[in-house]
Amino acid sequence: MHSLIAQIQPVDCAAGDRARAYLDTLTKPPGSLGMLEQLAIQLSEISGERAPTITPPGVVVFAADHGVAAEGVSAFPQAVTAQMVANFANGGAAINVFARQVNARLEIVDVGVVSDVDMPGVVVNKIRRASGNIAIENAMLPEQAQAAIGAGINAVRRAHQAGCRSVIVGEMGIANTTASSAMLAALTGTPVAQVVGAGTGLNSQQQIHKVNVIERALAARHFEASQPLSVLTALGGLEIAAMTGAYLAAAAYRLPVIVDGFIASVAALTACRICPAVSGYLVFGHRSEEPGHGAALEALEATPLLALGMRLGEGSGAALAFPLLQAATAMMAEMATFTSAGIADKTA
What residues sit in the active site (predicted)? Predict the structure, then answer.
């Protein structure tokens, strides 16, 4: 991991300035395309190019189970993780549909599912069979956290070697909103009750129980809030660690990476705490309905592209945002300038 982090450079702000100036020569009032213009500038900063190529995108979904599911913090049983991995492999999940829509390369990676999911379409890189129950033990050993980060790095390396020019990262793991909420509370100091939502569909009493479980975990685990790997080891999940590695790798390869919802954003925050330069490579796809997502976005100083009332995960919201990246690059490549179109620019 350390050698990869050494490769991460800040985005090219000079390229962004050139893109900003070029945008003001296009046949539109300055700034009239709003966030799409900011997105075009960011993509230029990432690539160093005015109109970078971002297709094909690579979608990577990391799957793992969580020991804290034993505390009754999810509306679904733990077996659903493996069942959904099979659904991904068979092409039937939301992320499969949305990945096909944008012609994405899709890879499913098992980094910690309890049962065996060795089937066509699944890369098995199992670090351990589920994280520990954070209410009574650490989520993982430090070397397991490093190995899971490495699994995420390797997945993005495979996507890059396959020719992908952008990355979409997703996850699957029953009880992973509990781990993410615990991590976010630890990393930001936000009260647990403000970051816990319905997850897979909890009622109000179940949410109160979930808050209590997380508060117990925060009190019982020993971690340094200023050390992201310490928080990840004590409270996180194997798929959260893998996503963290994926963000680090995307930055090292200078690939734009679209961040999905709450869990993905907690992993993104972890990556940014490890290496702040990662932040320039992150495009935030959508605002999740999970209440903790707002706190995560605030900590990341991020504004998402979409707000569709979603809270599915899998990378679904990020995949839906991808056409906006296509539009931003097409605008820079194809839109006429005032000069080329023979249109009078605004007068002084």
Answer: 314 (proton acceptor)
